[in-house]
Amino acid sequence: MTESKSLILGCAGHSLSREEIRFYRGECPWGFILFARNISEPEQIRDLVASMRDCVGREDAPVFIDQEGGRVQRLRPPLAPNYPPAAAVGEIYRRDREAGLRAAWLHGRMHAFDLARYGISADCLPVLDVPVEGASDVIGQRAYGRDPEAVAALGRASAEGLMAGGLLPVMKHIPGHGRASADTHFELPTVHASFDALRRHDFAPFTALNDLPAAMTAHVVFSAIDPAGPATTSGKVVEEVIRGEIGFDGLLISDDISMKALSGDFGAKAAAILAAGVDIVLHCNGVMEEMTAAAAKAKALEGAARRRADSAMAVIGAKNEGAEDELRAEFAEYFAAVA
Q1: Secondary structure letter of residue 316 according to DSSP
Q2: DSSP H or E segment with residue 123
Q3: In sequence order, what are the beta bridge partners of 34?
Q4: What digits encode the pLDDT tens for the residues 50-100?
Q5: Does position 1 have pLDDT exceeding 50, yes or no?
Q6: What are the φ and ψ backbone dihedral angles of 167, each rounded to 5 degrees?
Q7: In the annotation, is 137 catalytic?
Q8: Residue 288 to residues 34, 63, 296: CA-CA distances in angstroms?
Q9: What is the full DSSP assignment across 197-266?
Q10: I need a surface site. Which of 164, 247, 273, 274 has the fewest CB within 10 A?
């Protein structure tokens, strides 16, 4: 079997096409990601996850999903309950710190129960972005609040809840998306705050959680650091800020390169991301032509990137804490609105 490439890839539908199977077998991405278009019913999800892993010859190949709660939630009833957004957790925390921390842990633990039963092994959570007045609402309710210390505390609890259920948490969007004035799904925003302001506000939750195993980058330009390009493709941001100032030495995954924020062809995007020091290129939309171009420029997962990937993998399945019925009943006491 070919050595894993520094890629996480999506697929087009509910099952893999013959073309996708041939492609994944040939390119051997390190992991995969699921979206709502890939999900219909329980056995279908399990079969799709198993077929992805079969293509790369690794039963433990990580399968990611964005399951935050609120408007960013790929599994919906009856596959999983509708969960409140992070902002609702933050509201509990503002009233009662200890209750908020417990609610955040339970929030993560509930996701872990839901995802593990389908074979999904990683959740792109917690969101550690800290919005400011006037920013785009692309983060909005996805954030725990506007206080960096509260965001860090609740993000830590949520990540620990995921890990208590054997799920890999992926904090996002490092080094911070909260000030972005545009939605990076459609355009590239530039943040003009000073480095000191960024350090105190935007970077702070990531610094506090720099020991977590994985993080996803922000498609945001920080003019005080590197006005020439977004964090995802900036060696200066990756080395000086993410690895240096923030002190994060975990697995660094790009945000989705099929988003409109990044310019250029997909091969060029993938090459620039890896050259900047990001460990893994993420491509989500399942478009074969784009995946093929990205894969052509991807490289074998080796060296420091392999070490970080292996450390992240060690979290998956490592724990299975708590009785589900009891924890769901406790969770319901905090969030009566959950379906």
Answers
A1: T
A2: strand 122-123
A3: 65
A4: 999 999 999 999 999 999 999 999 999 999 999 999 999 999 999 999 999
A5: no
A6: -100, 145
A7: no
A8: 15, 19, 12
A9: HIIIIISHHHHHTTTSSEEEE---EETTT-TTS-GGG-HHIIIIIIIIIS---SEEEPPPTTSTTS-S-H
A10: 247
Q: What is the pLDDT of residue 187?
A: 72
What does the pLDDT look like over 183-225, one tens digit per residue?
Answer: 656 678 899 999 999 999 999 999 999 999 999 999 999 999 9
Which position among 123, 129, 226, 255 bears the catalytic label? Answer: 255
pLDDT at residue 261, rounded to an integer: 66
Please report which helix (H) or strand (E) contains residue 56, including its range: helix 42-56
For residue 32, count other CB atoms closer than 10 A to its CB: 28
- Give the 3-state secondary structure of residue 286: coil
Phi then psi dihedrals of residue 69, to 5 deg: 105, 165
Predicted confidence (pLDDT) per residue in 111-160, tens digit: 999 999 999 999 999 999 999 987 777 888 999 999 999 999 999 999 99
Among residues 110, 76, 108, 99, the alpha carbon closest in space to that of 327 is found at 110
Residue carrying structure tokens 């925003």: 189
From the candidates 60, 96, 185, 211, give the one annotated as an active-site residue: 185
Tokens of 228: 């020439």
Cα 108 to chain centroid distance, Å, stands at 13
* Cβ atoms of 31 and 4 closer than 8 Å: no
How does the average pLDDT of the chain come out, rounded?
94
Q: Say how far apart CA 330 and CA 102 lie, in whole Å.
A: 10
Task: Tell me if residue 54 is catalytic.
Answer: no
Residue 338 has pLDDT above 60, yes or no: no
